[in-house]
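Methods — Computational structure assignment.
A single polypeptide chain was analysed. Its primary sequence is given first, followed by the predicted tertiary structure written as structure tokens.
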Amino acid sequence: MSRSSCLAGIESELLTQYWLGELDASREALFEEHLFGCNDCAARLQELVGIADGIRALIQNGSMQGVVSKNLLERLAEEGLRLREYAVVEGGSVNCTVAPDDDLVISRLSASLVGVTCLDLVLSDEEGVEQLRLHDIPFNADAGEIIFIPSIAYLRTLPATTMRMHLLAMNHAGPKQIGEYIFLHTPWPST
């Protein structure tokens, strides 16, 4: 999105915070007062909502995977999506599956991210062969976790298998492992 001609200089981050419901009541009221009188910001907000709707549709049909915020996850749940969540502590493992009526599978990776400035998420198979790497993922160090949504379409095709996720802090000295998480996947029993 390009910068609009709005004289108030409303940033895209503020639009996003408003849409996600992250503003306190007083900031929200001030923003809404501006929004209802500014065609440029209203149009930019509508673009943001359109992008988010497209991303949501891609996630829901299994075409996309990625790291999401807690607020987006809560919003998807509020919209009635059936979420299957697996929380794993650093160094831990979890038995997991995908039911036929699940809309999304959520991997919650607990991690201490204090001092981390750049983070990669790596998925590897049982032998340690890298299958996917997400570079420079978004994260909130204070949240204490990374929320990853894998492709549900891909998960449904897997036989019984072990997948590993790694969080790697990236810096000038090279990658430093922040955490390893093991997912012991079992296919849903066929009927």
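Note: Residues 54 and 91 are 34 Å apart (CA to CA).
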